[in-house]
Give the backbone structure.
Amino acid sequence: MTKVYHVSASLFVRWATQRSTKHRVIGLIEHYAHHQAVLKYQLPNLTIPQVPPSDKEHWFEDEGMPVELRQAKIEKSESEITCRFSDFLLLGRVDQFYLLGSAGILVDTKSHAKPTIEDQLQLSFYAFILEQNGYKIADYAYVRCANIGISYQVIDLLPSELMKEIIELM
């Protein structure tokens, strides 16, 4: 019988960013990025009717939440996710997961001012788990930076094929 290793997002990020591994993981990411076009995501220009704002609209404005998330349906909030991949049981806990049309968008709240490589790996890990569970995931996510004020920063997610390669290094 094959042994199954439980791997949480925090364990994955810790492994992927340790001194002996980080250079190889970053090398894989840079190799992938070299061969792919970087897409820029812009919110559509929307005309907002001039009506007195509701409490919900005030919250959205104070929060600075992107318009696409305001229009999306929240599918998961503070939810445990898991999947089996190879000899690993992958575990995570998503802050928020929104559905916009047929694609899912991840949001993770951090207390630092801007996204890090660790944030990109963590959210890519979550996206991988969700894809293994049948969800279609956008190729980007948001890091909700709650340092001084709140801002939503877009990050590119690593594709499943690359995540498989990285996880198989473990």
Summary: The longest strand covers residues 73-85. The radius of gyration is 17 Å. Residues 34-49 have pLDDT under 50 and may be disordered.
